[in-house]
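Re: the 601-residue chain
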Amino acid sequence: MTTPTMNQRDISFQLHEMLDVAQFSERERFADHDKDVFDAVIDTAMNIAADLFEPHNRKADLNEPTFDGEKVHIIPEVKEALDAYIEAGFIGAQHDYDHGGMQLPATIAMTCSAIFNAANVGTSGYPFLTVGASNVIRAYGTEDQKKRFMEPMIAGRFFGTMCLSEPQAGSSLSDIKTKAIPQEDGSYRLTGNKMWISAGEHELSENIVHLVLAKIPGGPEGVKGISLFIVPKFLVNDDTSIGDRNDVSLAGLNHKMGYRGTTNTLLNLGEKGGATGYLIGEAHKGLFYMFHMMNEARIGVGLGAVSLGYAGYLYSLEYARNRPQGRHPDGKDASSNQLNLIEHADIRRLLLAQKAAVEGGLGLCLYAAKLVDDENTETDQDKKKEASLLLDILTPVVKSWPSEFCLEANKHAIQVLGGYGYTRDYPVEQYYRDNRLNPIHEGTHGIQGLDLLGRKVIMNKGAGLELLVRKMTETSQSARKNPALAEFSDLLDHAIENVVNVTRALAAEMQQGHINLALANATLYLDMFGHLVLAWQWLKQALVASEKLNQGPTKDDQNFYLGKLQACQYFYRFELCKVEPWSKLLGSVDDTTFSASAEIF
C-alpha cells in the first residue's frame, strides 16, 4: 500500500487560508515571488520527495551507514535524492540571490522541509543541518567566511553540521572541554571530542563544514567562555577549491533507534596536533551565535515531529479505510460482512487523536515560521517586535509539543494496524522509532520546560506571555460570535485563566528564592502550556473552516472543513480538559519529585 506522507490539501489550507502567505509578495525581499511561485515550489518538493526520498526510506533504515575504518558507506539512493534536492535549489531556499539562493520566505522553506522529512527523515538530515549551519555563517560570518564556506554550502558542494555535545557534557554545555588555541595567522588550533554529531562524516559532498563550540584558554568560566568556530573537514583554498585534510577524524558511528539513514558520529579534533578552525564573530559569544541556529533548528525539530506523525496518520487512515475486521458491538450475526476498521468508534478515536495532533502541530509550526519571516522582513516596527516576543515564548512549545504528542500519534498509528503495526512489513513502526529521537533533539523535553517556565514566561516582566494571552483572547472573542464555536471559546478562556494563575504562583515562588522547587515540575508546565497553545491554534483553524463552510464549498472541501471542526471538538473535549488538573497540581507547588532522595530508588 502506497500513501502520501503529507496532505497537500492541508498544507494549502495552512499556507493560504490560515497564514495568507501571498501577502509576502508585498515585502521587498519577496517581491519577485507570488502565490503561484510558492505553490510551484511546494509541488516540486512533493514530487522529489515522492519520487526520490520516500522510495528508499525503508532501505536506508534497514541498511544504515557503516564505517570500515577508512570511509563511511551509505546506500547510493541517498546521494541520488540529495543531488535532485540540490539541483532544485532547496539548500539555498532562504538565502540571498547574491549568494546563489532563492530568497524564499522561511514559511515556504520550512514547509518544504516538512515534506522531505515526512518522506525520509534520515536522508533529509543532511541538508537540514547544512541549511542551519549556512544560516549561522550568513548572520555572523565575515565576508570571506561567507564566500569560502557558505556559498559552497548553498551550492550543495559542502554540507554542514553543528558540534555542541561532548562525551562527558551532553546538554550541559558549560562543561565542554574542547580547546581553541589562537595562532599567529588569526586561525585557531582545536583539540577535543564531539559526540552525537549528526552527518559528521560521509562522502555525499566535497567537504563538511563543522560549526564547533570550544573554549579559548583564559576566557570566562562556564557558558560565557564558549566561542564558535568553523572547522572544515578539508581546508578550503581562496578559490573555494579543496585543500589538505584537516585534523578532524571519525572515531566511530553511533547507532540510534531511528534516523538510521543519517550518520551519527563521535569526532576527534586534533589527533595530529590540532584542527584548524576560524572564529565566527567575537570570542566568547559562541553560544549566542549557535542559538541562532538552534532556535531555527528547534522549529525544524517540531516540524519534523509533525511530519513523522503525519506520515503515520495518513498510512493508518488508509489502512483503516481498507482493512475489514470485526463488527459493531451489537452485531450478533457472525455470518454478516465484517466492517472496515474505520467504522469502529475506537479506531475513529485513534484517528481523531492523530488528526488533532498532526494538523494542530502543523498549524503551530508554520505559524512560528511566519513569525520568523515577520521578525526578519516586517517593516512595521511594532509588528516586528510582536513577532519577536511571540517567537521567544513559543519556541520551546513549537519544539517540544509536537515531539511529545505527534510521537503519541505515531503510537496510535501502530495501534490502528494492530499486530501488523509493530512489524517491519509496515512503515508505522519506523515512523515511531524515527520520531522518538525528537524529544531529545535540540534540547530535551525537560530542558525546554525549564526554558519556558524559568525564562520565557517571566522575561521582560512577562511581556511575551501578556501578548500571547491577548492574541488568544482575541481569537476567543471572535469564536464567541459563532454559535457552533461558543463552547470552545468558553473552554479556552477558562484554560487561559488557569495557566495565567499558575504561572503567577510559580513566578512568585521563584521570586521568593524557591527556584528549584518551582521548576521541579517544569515539564508538566510545558505540557499544560502547550495544550493551551494548541487549543488556540485549533480554534483559529475552526474559525476559518466555519467561514468557508458558509460559502458553499465543493463536496471534497466541505468534508475537509467538517474534518477541521470535528478535530477541534476532539481536542477541546479530550485534550484541553487536562489543563485544569495539571494547573491544580502545579499551583500546589507539589514537591513529590523534588523531595525524592536519590537513596529511595
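The longest strand covers residues 188-198.
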